[in-house]
Specification:
Largest sheet: 6 strands, mixed
Number of helices: 9
Shape: globular
Amino acid sequence: MRKVSFARFGGPDVLRLIDAEEPHAGPGQVRVAVRAAGVNPVDWRIREGQLLAAHPIELPSGVGLDAAGVVDEVGEDVEGIETGDHVFGEGSDTYAEFAVLSAWARMPADLTFEEAAGYPSVMETALRVIREVGVRPGQTLLVSGASGGVGSAVLQVARHEGIAVIGVAGPANQDYLHSLGAAATTYGRGWVERVRRLGQVDAALDLAGSGVIRELVELTGDPGKVVSIADLRAPDLGVRFSGAAGSMPDALAETARLITRGELHIPVEKTYTLADAAAAHTDSQAGHARGRRVLTI
């Protein structure tokens, strides 16, 4: 099978499309013929060697955690799923023609593989950081990096929980944030004052790692009311860095529920082939996303 791999840590140029042996489902796992794989910032952070404590790996290594596809092997002790079922979920080395998933859910009706592949890590992260930042119904949540996959999910989940949202993103994504029900503003000179004019901020999330931790603490008045998923220096300012994942099965179940009820939709901004994985990582690192990026197989 074809698989994206890297033999040393570094930039996108270390990624190679290689021929590899097919993986097989072990106990409590399923194998899928991958139709699409999600591209997430955690993928290139692992490729760069940033997250070895949380994601220890041996080189050479595959890439990717999220996928959607067709089940073609069912491991021991797995019930309620059969070969031929369409699922989305989390596993390992998902930038490949076949991948093993350790958590999965059936894809909601009318969802394409490309759409489904972008949800698992995005939604697990969104649900986790909303909980960790402690924002409550009736309060206002400020989201820096609001137009990307996690930001898009946070805005929609928070609104459905009765939380008002203010999103910060680039000029090209202001209308998109408004379409998700957020008050919106841009970065750049005076952005803190622009946020203040939009309302009181009770809690804040840093989803982009764009060097705004001090300003988020200033706006909330308390480093304990700020959570970052993107700035490894956040703890130096008393802000929690959230990197440990919660329950993926619970996140997938909630994702399917919200999609089925028409309460969640995150667009796929761009698709890539396996051979274009390096370009996908380059674009992901550049930021300014509107929704999600996925590889199609």
